[in-house]
Amino acid sequence: MICRCRLTDPMSGFFLLRRTFMEEVIPNTSAIGFKILVDLISSCHRPVVVREVPYRFRQRRHGTSKLDTLVLVEYSQLVADKLIGRWVPPRFVLFGAVGVAGAVLYLTVLALLYRELRIDFRLSLVLATIAAMTSNFALNNIITYRDLRLKGAALFKGLLTFYAACSVGAVVSVRVSELVQMGGVHWLFAGAAGILIASVWNYSMTQFFTWRIHRKAQKKRHLPATQELPACSASTTKTAR
Predict the structure, then answer these.
(1) Could you give the angle at the alpha carbon of 154 between the alpha carbons of 153 and 158, nearest 5°?
(2) Which of 82, 160, 203, 206 has the fewest CB atoms within 10 Å around its CB?
(3) Bridge partners (DSSP) listed for residue 51
(4) Taking 50 as the threshold, does the pLDDT of residue 79 lie above it?
């Protein structure tokens, strides 16, 4: 559906394409994941002519497959970007999914601390909030921002900025919900409005301050131009024109 052509092995890393085709589609690519064939084909705004030469794999003797859960997440993110990327960033979808998991953890920890361990309710709220924020940061660092993953000292600094941004987001959520409810909206929809606004806030602020996408983008724009590659020929399984 996203390639708009018959492609029997979209995950292949063994293909040949015309240089003119690559120069045409590169500006439209999503650059998500490491399997680029789907990205190239689906980034073309016209029908692509594909010729496939079948081959058969022998049984693996050495090494292991690179396919894991995170690769599947990246592949899903690529497909989502091609389908809805014009309206909703796929990272935001993943960020929201992580947020839902964090909400479940928050309620679980709160119930455990307050109802089972009989800890003061306010302290239970604080501890449950910290647990949810920490979990959300870790999952976002591993999944949502896998290509920008923080490590070492940057990991600790990123956690602090994530705490700060999400704390403000919590305040924003409460205030927005109160204002919407005062306007006569049902409490359930008022609460949902607060969560939505807070999610957009948290996504924007953590993307800017925690994972610093804007700075990494600026560095890429200022990288020195690479030397022009010579045209190549190879035994192929696919050719795109």
Answers:
(1) 125
(2) 160
(3) 239
(4) yes
